Amino acid sequence: MKVVVQKFGGTCVDSEPNQLITAERIMEARDRGLHPIVVVSAMGRAGQPYSTVEMVNLVRRIDPDIEARELDLLMSCGEIISTVAMAHLLKAKGYETIAFSGGQAGLITDDYYGHARIVDIRPDGILAALQDGYLVFVAGFQGNTTSHQITTLGAGGSDYTAVALTRVIKDTPRLPFGEMLEVEPLQIYKEVPGVMTANPKTLADTGGGEARALTQLTYDECVALSRLGAEVLQQQAAEMAREHGIPLLVRDYRVSDSSGTEVGAATTAAGPERATAIADQEKLLVFDLQTDDSRLVLQIAERLDRERLTYFQVNTPDEKVRLAVRPFKYRNVSAIVDGVLQARHARAEINEGDFALVSVVGERLRGRLEEWREKAERVLTGNNIAVHGTSQGAISLSHLVPEADRKKAVALLHEHTVL
To answer: Which spans in 48-185 are helix H?
Structure first.
């Protein structure tokens, strides 16, 4: 039995026309003899019925301070609604279908509400459904603890669900009654042709050229882009895919058999002197620690890790200790950082929202970061964009710039380092 996990984002199911297009992608897989496991996100975005944002707004109009456990219980509903709707649509088209919540699908998490991690996968229910010939639908973004509490997996958590299910099928050689299993590359469906060289909306706002779809992306590039703000794959999902060697395709759900972007171990297809893509992260929380105590800095970094926040240590010309923290949906990052500082009796100058991180990413940067830093800084400072610090990874170079200049910086770096 050949199984394929297909993940559809919220836009793919936010209206009846889009649901019908999504149904076509599922039926096409079945026509090819594949057995789909379909992971579905909540319908649409802010302002649309049943979106997670609107569900959260519903209760926060009563009181903005809601317990994390209850918030996860509420936020899990969006994916359940869209999963049942899609399962019912395919049933109306003559298929035998079954819908699972994340917990029913066997995803076991720790009890960190709002940003849980998957600690075990118990796929007996899914395997039995495959054995019986069902089209399987699984609500993304959620799981259950061992004490049967509902948790959510953080923004973009449906990607995490899809990678985890692909992993468990990959590691299951046979169905309960002996039929051998094979798993196809994971299919991630979005409303774009694949992973783009930059955010198309950002470039459109600047008139700075067009982003193009990449044909290939390495695991390291996928992880770096996800961490640095690109809407490629949730960071935890990208890290799990890399760790377990799970190949995946990012495709346009509107196009039958779109080639999309392959993510795997293959070498990037970027040119010899070209970066792969530009990522940007808007409206960061930036704080400068007023301390010379390196141990205190390490303690704060460890605490931020425990709080599951993505942060960047920024190197500044004046050697300040500067940390930039990504904003997260449904989490009060500012309050968390304040709590961390108070617990360490630390003082900091805090700026919320006035800075952004713009990053050049690609395998071509490996071992050549200083050269690429000089090139990127010439582009930015030569166009009157102030650089307030840099951060780097093995294949990424990030610049802290004013939020007001973020889109211009993306367009310039895209033109001079990617195109």
So the answer is: 52-60, 68-92, 124-131, 157-170
Whose CA is closest to 88, among 167, 26, 172?
Answer: 26
Residue 336 in any domain: the answer is yes
260 part of a folded domain: no
Of 240, 264, 239, nearest to 250 by C-alpha is 264
Residues 12, 191 contacting (CB under 8 angstroms): yes
Global pTM reads 0.95
Number of domain units in the chain: 2
> How far are the Cα atoms of 147, 157, 194 from residue 275, in angstroms, in the given order?
47, 28, 17
pLDDT, tens digit, 9 for 90 and up, residues 94-124 = 999 999 999 999 999 999 999 999 999 999 9
CATH number of residue 182's parent domain: 3.40.1160.10
State whether 47 and 170 are in the same domain: yes
Boundary of a domain, candidates 191, 225, 250: 191
- Angle, in degrees to the nearest 10, between helices 369-381 and 406-413: 120
